[in-house]
Amino acid sequence: MPELPEVETVKRGLSPAMEGARIERLELRRGDLRFPFPENFEDQVSGRTIIGLGRRAKYLLIDLDSGKTIISHLGMSGSFRIEQGPVSQTPGDFRCERSKDEKHDHAIFHLEGKGGERRVIYNDPRRFGFMDIADRSELQNNPFLFGLGPEPTGNELSATYLAERFAGKAQPLKGALLDQKNVAGLGNIYVCEALWRAHLMPARPAGTLVTKTGKPKEQLSLLVASIRSVIADAIKAGGSSLRDHIQTDGSLGYFQHSFSVYDRESLPCRTPGCGGTVSRIVQAGRSTFYCPDCQK
Description:
Shape: elongated
Helix content: 10-25%
Mean pLDDT: 90
């Protein structure tokens, strides 16, 4: 699945083409993706102007002048392609080029705006992505967005906040960070990276980072700083390493080549002076990479 930095890169790549443009019509070439398209989706969208693009966790948000917001998730293989005349671009950072096979073009936004006509095409071979639409004022109650925790780069995420969530919890630290009710948008790759930067063992009980009086320990403050830095570095690099996943100009990002621990089993730990070797365990059915020497 695309992680937060990939979705943020897609949003930034689509913004110049979509913001301020009028949707002349939405063309749906099938009735469903992972879920059926919303009822009367084409009628709700066609003729509306896109006033802005946003992101919440791993969801792309397309705000319309009608007061409604399109909620889009890329699933496992979804991507947006911008076509204007002979020029075609696929916003996002994907290790291997995304599909441009027209048989997988399931939703086409026909746009008119500054610079002329263009098409923004949603392509999804596996059809694990989906689209929904909701009143912008009610987004917090949408089933996909309801109950999400703070963004990993937002001001709401702090050591004090996590101390409140982790106090008394025996849940492994990695699982607590992947819980979207605790932190929105964190995925397997970046949790592994953040825990490595903070020198914390993924299987360590989350509650051990909180004092008996409910205050955050210094290690929890370091973890919050590590989460912020790893996400910021990934966004700056244009995303990370998903196997299927190409930037707006078609070039590949480089953050995937600078992972410190993820997918580096049996390789030397990159912590200066550590001398350890990266190990892999399975937690909740997903691979966890860590250094048993410097992560405690």
